[in-house]
Amino acid sequence: MQTIQGDGFIVTVIKSGRRKTTALKIKEGEVSIHIPARLPLKLAQQFVIQKTHWIKNKLAAQTLKQVPEKQFIDGEDFLFLNENYVLQLIQANSSPTIKINSQYIELHGRLNRLSKTAMRAALVRWYKQQAEDYIAIHTDRLSAKINIIPRSITIKTYKARWGSCTIHGELQFNWKLMLAPPDIIDYVIIHELCHIQHHNHSAQFWQLVEHHCPSFRASRLWLKNNGYRLEL
Predict the structure, then answer these.
(1) pLDDT, tens digit, for every residue of 120-151?
(2) In the chain, helix, strand, coil percent, each to 5?
(3) Contact, 38 vs 44, CB < 8 A?
(4) Close Cβ partners of 130 (under 8 Å, ≥ 6 residues apart)
(5) What angle do CA 141, 194, 189 make, to 5 degrees?
(6) Could you tell me which of 1, 31, 3, 5 has the C-alpha nearest to residue 165?
(7) Which of 150, 143, 172, 151 is nearest to 10 (CA)?
(8) Confidence class of residue 104 from pLDDT cuts 50, 70 and 90?
(9) Taking the model in full, what pTM does it have?
C-alpha cells in the first residue's frame, strides 16, 4: 500500500478503478486519500500539500477537546507521567527554573515579573527537557527489544499527533506525552518504530504493532478518550 508523507502526518493512498475524483478522509486520527487508479502519485502528493492546513485542522478537531485553561497559580495541579503534582511558586532572584519532588512541581523565579505566558513557557521548556531524556531512553530500550532502530529521535510540539515517522526512519514525539502514563508512552514509541517498516496503517502494520504491544487497542482508546487532558 502506498503512502504520502505529510507535514507531521502520513496519508494512506487508496486507488479505485471506479473513482473519478480525489477525496481526503480523516477518521480517528488517520488520513487517507482516495484517487482514481490511473492518477499519478505526484498529483496526489500535490493535492495533499494543498490541503495540509485543512488536514491539520481536522486532525486537531478530532484530537482535542475543551480543557480548562491553566492559571499557573500556587496550588494548581499539573500532570507528569499521569501523576498529579501541585504547582508551588517560589520567589527567587533568578530566571525561571523548574524542580520536581514527590509532591510538587516547583517554579522558582522573580514571581512579580512573571506573566502567565512566561510561567507556561518555563514549564513547557522543562517538559520538553524531560521528554528528551525519558523518550530517548525508552525508545532505545524498545527499539533494541523489537530490533527496529530509528535514525534519530526529536521532541516536537504537535497539536493533533503524538508522534510521527519519516520515510528515512526519523522519529518525532510530542513532548505532551510526558503527561501520559508510561505504558501509553511505550505504545506510541512502538507505534512509530513500526512505521519504520510500514509507512502506512495497513493490516500488516497493525499486526506488527500488536505483536510488540498486545494491549495496543486499549492504549489507542485511552488516548482517544483522554488525549485532550494532556495539555498545559
Answers:
(1) 999 999 999 999 999 999 999 999 999 999 99
(2) 45, 25, 30
(3) no
(4) 80, 175, 178
(5) 45
(6) 5
(7) 172
(8) very high
(9) 0.77
